[in-house]
Amino acid sequence: MKLGFLIASLFATVAFSQDNYVSETSGNLTIEYDAALQKIMTEKENAICVVPEEEKEVKKPEFCNGVRVQVFYGKSRQEAEAKLKEVKTLFPNLHANVVYHSPDYKVHLGYFESRNDAAATLNRAKRNFPASFIYNETFRCSLIGN
Fold first, then answer.
1. Which 3 state secondary structure label does DSSP give 75?
2. Contact (CB, 8 A) for 134 and 67
3. Residue 90, helix vs strand vs coil
4. Model confidence over 31-45: pLDDT tens digits?
5. Which of the listed CATH numbers 3.30.70.1070, 3.90.920.10, 1.10.10.10, 3.90.1200.10 matches domain 63-143?
6. pTM for this entry
């Protein structure tokens, strides 16, 4: 009698129990998992993670206020391009370019974060270009050091 009752109750439990599964479908893939797992996943998603200060990424702005060195100023484009070639041979690791502000041509050198950073370059530039000076400019932060 006990054995029959045990088998009948086991059969009833298996036959009439409700499955507590969650089913998610994405395309032709179906994933089934226990509802308790769904609850745990939801709790984890809603949990607030505290990131220590030293691990927080500091977002650098796109544009920065910095300085550049102007090594030439004149009205002739050919002369400005000749000076640019000379600057590029003297300072191969720094960015140099010609800028045209009607009616003048200027040759600019480097991108620096501060006047102190540009001072050594200015001293070297003054040897070949005595009229060189440092001026303030706003440019992309990623250019600093070029």
1. coil
2. yes
3. helix
4. 777 777 778 877 877
5. 3.30.70.1070
6. 0.58
